[in-house]
Each structure stands twice: as structure tokens, then as C-alpha cells.
Amino acid sequence: MKVSDLVANKINRLKNGYVFTYDEFDVPVGKVEALKKTLSRLVATGKIVRLSKGQFYKPEKTEFGILQPPEYQIVKDLLEEKNKLVGYITGVSIFNKLGLTTQVSSTIQIGTNIERKPRKRGKYNIRFLRQKNTITKENVYMLQVLDAVRFIKRIPDADVNESCRRIISILREFSQEDRIAIAKYAFKYNPRTKALAGAILDHISETCITDQLYISINPATDFDLKISHEALPTKLKWRII
Q1: Which residues of 62-73 are buried (b: 16+ CB within 10 A; e: fewer)?
Q2: Strand 84-85 to strand 107-112: parallel, antiparallel, or no bridges (unpaired)?
Q3: Domain ranges of the chain
Q4: Which fold has domain 3-62?
Q5: What's the predicted TM-score (pTM) here?
Q6: Which of 82, 180, 213, 214 is the most exposed, fewest CB within 10 Å of its CB?
């Protein structure tokens, strides 16, 4: 089969917004250049869009223009290495999904165990946040919620008290076992995150699960978060002001 036919068949089967690379085409080494030229021609005709060097996607076209791929598609190669999860999407897009803000952003933030430099793909800037906890499929959501706790004062277009109430509502939905896990993961965050996570967990948990978290914080430190007593009744114990 000619390379052009192989490429056409493959792309016709792809879903709109799916990001792919040269590696997805099973062609001999001697025909890689032909593959590159074929894809370049398809970019020129608008059949596919080049996201970044060596990355393309099949566009979904609307009356308002071409839709960008889903964020996961844009960064999926940065989230796994050798079938091991090494990153997860966090930041404004996740805070939006958690109901903490209505804002959207052209920056995709990734929590990762690996040091990486910022980069750009399409219209998106990609930034990396060092996550000290081991990342697993089971704990990604917990880490995303802890990231919201960490950046509660920096969530765009959001009131810190309303954000606190929303995070409390989210954590109420967790099982006690998962809350204990969150307290454990909070150990590897900064002291302010420990304090706010601990205060929230104290507020919603029937039994105390935060003793070790509490004693890990310097007793002389206060945390200026501007959260009211009405929003978080347990704040004084954790020296949140």
C-alpha cells in the first residue's frame, strides 16, 4: 500500500481532536520521509493541523472555526513514560471542573514527579508543578484537590471563602479512608497547605485524622488566608487568620 493511502486510511479512522505523531504509522524506515511529506501536504490542505513539531491532530470544524483538541490530548505524552503515570493535569482547568472558578486559561499546568522545562504547544503554554507524592491513577483526584487547597488564594475570579466552602463540599464526598489518604498526601505539601487541609479535614471528619499533620507544622507560624470563621470554624486551631 502506498504511504499516502496508508495515511489517509489511518486519519479517516481517527476521532476529531485526537493528537498523533509519526510513530502511529507503521511504515518502513525507508519511507519515513514520504510519511512526513504526506502529512505536510495534509496540513497544507487543512485535513489535519500541526500542533507542534511532529504532532498533529484531526480538527473538528465548526461555524466559529477549528476547535482545539482536549487538554488531555495536547499533553498526554507528558503524563506517562513507559506506561507509568508521571504527571496529571492541574491548575485553572481543573479548578474550573471542580467548580471553583468559571475562568479558562491558555496555560496547561501539569503536576509531575519529573523536572521539566516550560514549553508551548499550539496556543497553549505548558507549565510544570513539582509533585512530591508518587502519582497513581488512584490518587490523581486527591492531588488535584490538594492543589486547589494549595493555590486557594490564586484561583482566578474566586472569593477565598467561597472556594473554601466548595472544597469542604468536595471533601465531604470522600470516604473516611480517602480523607485519611489526603491527610497523608498533604504531608508533602507546604505548611500553609498542610494547615488548611488539616483544618478542613478536622471540620468534616467525625474522628480526628490529622494529629500527625498538626504536629508537623511549626507552632509559631500563622497563615494569613483571609478565611472567615463562618467558612471554616476550625481555623483557629490551625492558626489560620
Answers
A1: eeeeeebbebeb
A2: unpaired
A3: 3-62, 71-215
A4: Arc Repressor Mutant, subunit A (1.10.10)
A5: 0.92
A6: 82
